[in-house]
Design a protein that fits this description.
The chain has 798 residues and is mainly beta. The chain is built from 3 helices and 45 strands. The N terminus is likely disordered. The strands form 10 sheets. It has a 22-stranded antiparallel β-barrel. Strands 3-9-10-7-8 form a 5-stranded mixed sheet. A 3-stranded antiparallel sheet has the order 4-5-6, with no helix packed on it. A hairpin with a 2-residue loop joins strand 35 and strand 36. The chain has one domain: TonB-dependent receptor, beta-barrel domain (Maltoporin, Chain A, Beta Barrel).
Length: 798
């Protein structure tokens, strides 16, 4: 198929041999790079700027941190046209984030460990932080606004952050208020009628009070057409705005307190499904209008179809509505020269209403009455989160340490209204209206943690870091209202709207605790080179299924996820600070890795656990080739797979959900990023700057289910391994800017995915059978990536 390449064959080499080979490669890379650059650069006196990160809750040079970190400052983010969370994927190999713009779900993967679960009863393996505040719902982060720095930390990070992170963390810092009156106003216009206005105003209100306000308003037409001509709106429309204010008060030199308030509103239409193939399970029932195979271009897609309102067929609404409001208070108090107390108090309230559908497949029977061969519905998720963190840090006799406590409370609600297939069940159940099945659940999470990290200087060149964490998590699931028009068909666990399983009739509770830690040795070979080795652990609490399958026990919890990571790394500077090369190789073992798969013959997904292993290497090189030219290269190799076969039973029988040796989600074997940044001074006329980058990714898996699983309940389509793959792809991005001599005006032409590359960003495979009635059908569908986008920015700095 156009734009889709055959999956790359995995390397048939024993794991121990791979690790040894990677070790020799990683240790040899800096020398090889040095040779390629040559001796001619030694005569120059310009250097790379030092990168300061807070990855270890301390301000440190990136080269002194014994963790694999990809760090990008505000200039790098803007030059790379990074505007939302998923954009970070194309500048950080090893990180994969599905499209967060107008998407129902967000899948985040670090080093091949992905969280793609649906429902409020589960959490992500990768933690997202903005200004030190944990973000419960990454899908609600529509814009990255006034970002000072973004850091991608790879591997377990439980001893450094308040919320545990079994796979990694993304740490985003917005710009702090300053003592100067400054800011900017920017306007953007692009294809698909993109219009955006953003700006920042920094105001010193008094000697010890400063304010910084940032805002954005962004609109864009949809670039994907809905195959249902009755729908007026295109898919992937954007209409959102956001505002943030940071108010910094510094009553003394030792005490600072900051209030951060933010608000975001998102509208528009959600992503669509490109239907590759569709067929009715029962021969003779048509799939009119959807049985053709669409090209991978994805110019046409479906998220809708037909539902009934008072017996009248109407198009399904694809609109998204999301609203988020947050507040945080950050306090830093230097108790004395050696002790600092830090407090982070935060509250966030988010509500996100999204249309959902079973693969986007809907059929129309001849005559006045249409029928549905899939299902459609609305999902309304709400998150109300409170978080309190206290950290005490100090420097005692050369020992750098901190200890922290964290309290986290989250109340999440999930409300679904489904229009189920017609002809499913008794004759009375033939309306296909929203409300045919209804599910309202509430999940309460309460967590406590004590964590700390200590750096012991064993000598002038050798450091030992020890971190530890104790976590206690309790989750309770409450079923407020579960109903259906066809009794015992979709939710057989329900009688009169109440869950009727063992235990408390309408709720279930479970708790988990864990002790984890990390040990790191780092050794300074010379002034420019450091090597390190680490063993670290991560943990993610268990949870509950809030998307009920026919065979689910709503009271049954799934197990916690435990990770153990072994890492060797090297960080070096060469040629008088003009070349920076950082490399790491790692082996991660996951016990009870949490994933989702739909049982045979069922549509809703169920949370399951299986053991998994990930190994690989990473390399990052930054080269200041000329005073005006900087070249960057990032490379990632991954071998991520399940090491256990896990079966699941549904109404269609029993089948393997995953197989031993099956690839994990969003884990390309090879991925790389090559970037070039070049500037030219035009004497007294200003500066022209060109930034170009190319990101490449091998094919990777998009769906945890096995071929056996989706076909177990009976299917009208023959599935293959290719149907679960993204296809390999390359993305070319460029930005050309002109800056006036006074540096007050800047005009930029930019483009992303300039070659208009197409690949699958998310897939949805449905194999429903006669268990659901004669309207059952199978479909292969996917969401594609964003096509070529381009535009112009005009910015005024003051």
């Amino acid at each position: 198929m156009d734009g889709i390449k055959a999956p790359t064959a995995s390397l048939d080499v024993q794991k121990g041999e791979i690790i040894m080979k990677l070790k020799h490669r990683v240790l040899a890379l800096p020398l090889a790079i040095s040779t390629l650059i040559g001796q001619s650069v030694l005569a120059e006196d310009f250097q790379l700027e030092e990168i300061v990160v807070t990855a270890q809750k301390r301000s440190q040079s990136l080269q002194d941190v014994p963790i694999a970190v990809k760090a990008m400052d505000t200039d790098q983010l803007r030059q790379s046209s990074i505007t939302n969370l998923s954009d970070l994927s194309r500048v950080s190999p090893g990180l994969s984030i599905s499209n967060t713009q107008n998407s129902a779900f967000t899948a985040i993967s670090v080093r091949g460990v992905s969280t793609a679960t649906v429902g409020v009863g589960a959490e992500a393996s990768t933690a997202i932080y903005i200004d030190g505040v944990y973000q419960r719902d990454p899908a609600s982060i529509s814009n990255l606004l006034d970002i000072a720095q973004a850091e991608v930390l790879k591997g377990p990070q439980g001893t450094l952050f308040g919320r545990n992170a079994a796979a990694g963390a993304v740490n985003i810092q917005t710009a702090s208020p300053s003592e100067e009156f400054e800011g900017y106003l920017s306007a953007t216009y692009g294809n698909e009628n993109l219009k955006s206005v953003s700006g920042v105003v920094n105001i010193p209100l008094s000697e010890n009070l400063q304010s910084r306000t940032s805002f954005i308003s962004k609109q864009r037409d949809g670039w994907q057409k809905d195959t249902d001509s009755a729908n007026a709106d295109d898919l992937y429309e954007i209409d959102n705005y956001a505002v943030r204010n940071r108010l910094l008060w510094m009553p003394t030199d030792e005490l600072s307190a900051e209030l951060i308030l933010d608000y975001a509103k998102e509208k528009g239409t959600r992503s669509g499904f490109v239907i590759e193939e569709a067929a009715a399970v029962v021969p003779g029932f048509p799939t009119a209008g959807f049985n053709q195979t669409h090209k991978i271009s994805g110019d046409e897609a479906s998220v809708s179809g037909v539902i009934m309102e008072n017996g009248v067929p109407v198009p399904f609404n694809a609109d998204i509505n999301s609203e988020s409001v947050g507040a945080a208070v950050l306090i830093d108090w230097e108790l004395n020269e050696d002790l600092t107390l830090t407090s982070i108090t935060s509250y966030r309230d988010t509500d996100r209403l999204t249309p959902v559908s079973g693969g986007g497949l809907f059929s129309f029977a001849p005559g006045a009455l249409p029928y549905l061969s899939g299902y459609v519905g609305t999902m309304d998720n709400g998150y109300e989160t409170f978080n309190q963190e206290l950290r005490l840090s100090g420097l005692t006799n050369g020992i750098d340490w901190f200890v922290g406590v964290n309290y986290f409370k989250d109340t999440s609600t999930q409300s679904m209204a489904l229009a189920l297939p017609l002809f499913m069940g008794p004759p009375a159940f033939t309306t296909g209206e929203l409300g045919d099945a209804r599910l309202e659940a509430e999940a309460e999470i309460e967590s406590y943690a004590i964590f700390g990290d200590v750096i012991f200087p064993l000598s002038d060149t050798l450091n030992l870091t020890v971190g530890a964490r104790y976590s206690s998590d309790e989750k309770e699931i409450k079923w407020d209202d579960v109903a259906q028009k066809a009794p015992n068909t979709f939710y057989p666990q329900v009688t009169n709207g109440i869950i009727t399983t063992t235990g408390d009739a309408a709720k279930a509770k479970d708790d988990w605790s864990n002790v984890s830690g990390r040990i790191v040795l780092d050794y300074q070979l010379n002034d420019d080179t450091m090597v390190y080795g680490s063993v670290s652990q991560g943990y993610k609490a268990g949870g509950f299924n809030t998307e009920l399958t026919i065979t689910s026990d709503p009271n049954e919890a799934f197990d916690p996820e435990i990770s153990t990571s072994y890492e060797l790394g090297l960080k070096t500077m060469a040629f008088d600070g003009r070349v920076q090369a950082n490399a790491a190789m790692f082996f991660n073992k996951y016990s009870d890795y949490q994933f989702q798969a739909a049982p045979p013959g069922e549509i809703a997904a169920k949370n399951l656990v299986a053991d998994a292993e990930v190994q690989g290497m990473e390399l990052g090189v930054l080269w200041r080739a000329l005073e005006s030219l900087t070249v960057s290269l990032d490379l990632s190799y991954l071998d991520a797979e399940f090491v256990e076969t896990v079966s699941v039973t549904g109404v269609g029988g029993t089948a393997n959900a995953v197989n031993d040796g099956q690839d994990m989600l969003r884990a390309p074997e090879w991925s790389a990023q090559l970037g070039v940044d070049y500037s030219v001074m035009l004497a007294d006329l200003g500066e022209v700057r060109v930034n170009a980058s190319y990101f490449y990714s091998d094919t990777y898996r998009l769906n945890n289910a096995s071929v056996e699983l989706v076909e177990a309940g009976g299917s009208a389509i023959d599935f293959s391994e290719r149907d679960f793959q993204s296809g390999s792809y390359g993305l070319l991005n460029m930005r050309v800017s002109y800056l006036t001599p006074e540096e007050d005006w800047e005009v930029s032409l930019w483009g992303t995915n300039l070659t208009d590359e197409s690949y699958r960003d998310y897939d949805w495979i449905i194999a429903s059978n006669a268990v659901y009635g004669v309207a059952g059908a199978s479909t292969r569908a996917y969401q594609r990536n964003e096509p070529r986008m381009y535009g112009v920015d005009v910015r005024f700095n003051f």
